[in-house]
Amino acid sequence: MSEADLHAILHAGRIRLHQLALAEQGLAEQFYATLASRRADLAVATARAIAASRSRGIAELQAMGSSQYGTALHDSDIDLYAPIPPTCADLGTLRALLDGHAEYRKTRSVPTAGPRYLFAFQQDGMDVDLNLVEHADYRLAVTVVQEIAAALTGSDRIANTWIKHLLQQRRQADAYDRWKDATRLHHSPTLRLLRSSGHAA
């Protein structure tokens, strides 16, 4: 794909598989097929990561991101969200609960301005980001991911993953992040509403 064509797709913010040239469609489908084993490995590792986190008192875990949407690349990791346990009144008690399982990395904010505590660990050699948020923010995040997963068709997943691959291959990190954001925004009415109201960056 030429740089001009890729730039036009980025500007549009989405692409359907049938809009690609026939040769490009074939490449996209072949590439997606090579990721089948990675998707399977991610699914197994995700289930194990959820079980390991539950054993430490973390409930209602939900997988997020590309591993959940079916758009993961060969190096994609695992993103998990969960509500902060009611027994954890602050970050200190949360860190104590997860000691020996996940390492605290940083605190970020969510669209409602509540905290998002990011912990990290490895499962089956894969990086896992464990995000803990207040329960209302957790429900909001689950709604967004469910909307995206439901809206993406099989051909959408192939086309979206192909564009991600091309951007990664060309080391266009900023464009890669914009493409992922555009995909989320296009397929989630809830996220669009948050963005239009100024509650989501």
Description:
It is a single chain. This protein has one domain (3-193): Beta Polymerase, domain 2 (2-Layer Sandwich), CATH 3.30.460. With 201 residues, it is of the alpha+beta class. The two termini are 30 Å apart. It is built from 9 helices and 5 strands. It is globular and about 55 Å long. The mean pLDDT is 91. Helix 2 (22-34) crosses helix 7, helix 7 (154-169) packs antiparallel against helix 8 (173-187) and helix 8 (173-187) packs across helix 9 (189-196). The chain has a 5-stranded mixed sheet, sandwiched between helices.
Q: Biggest β-sheet, characterized?
A: 5 strands, mixed
Give the integer mean of the pLDDT values: 91
Secondary-structure content class: alpha+beta
- Please tell me the CATH architecture by its name: 2-Layer Sandwich
How would the global form be characterised? Answer: globular
Please render the helix and strand layout as text.
Blueprint (H helix, E strand, L loop, with lengths): L2 H10 L9 H13 L1 H19 L7 E3 L1 H4 L8 E6 L7 H8 L4 E7 L5 E9 L2 E8 L1 H17 L2 H16 L3 H15 L1 H8 L5
Parallel strand pairs: 2-5
Antiparallel strand pairs: 1-2, 3-4, 4-5
Helix pairs in contact: 2-7, 6-8, 7-8, 8-9
A few lines on this structure:
The chain has 201 residues and is an alpha+beta fold. It has helices spanning 3-12, 22-34, 36-54, 66-69, 91-98, 135-151, 154-169, 173-187, 189-196; strands at residues 62-64, 78-83, 103-109, 115-123, 126-133. Strand 3 (103-109) and strand 4 form a beta hairpin.
